[in-house]
Design goal:
Radius of gyration: 21 Å
Mean pLDDT: 78
Strand content: under 5%
Number of strands: 0
Order of helices and strands: HHHHH
Low-confidence stretches: 110-117
Structural class: mainly alpha
Number of helices: 5
Distance between the termini: 33 Å
Shape: elongated
Length: 119
Amino acid sequence: MTPRSLYRRIALAEVVTWALLLLGMFLKYVTRTTEVGVRVFGLVHGVVFIAFCLVTLLLWVNQRWTIREGLLGLLSAARPPAGRRGRRRRRRARADRCRPAPGPARRHAGLTRRLDVAP
């Protein structure tokens, strides 16, 4: 399992358990029918929340995220809808860092690749 797929799976589990916890809270406080949903989904969500934070910290170090990217990852754990925007920003930031240089430096990089010469 790659770090990216692990992060996506744990993020999906975080969102699903958060939604189930909201459903449990609705049943407990609005309809006043049962509080079992809050007990069960609260426990599951708590475990997944801690796992998400730990995976985020692991990826922060492993993928060499900037401080901003790491904090956005942790913020997305506290507020699941922020996760999509944070992932999108991190993806754009990585793409910007990986773009080839414009102009002559780009042509030179291609030449060294063809000749198998270290730049």
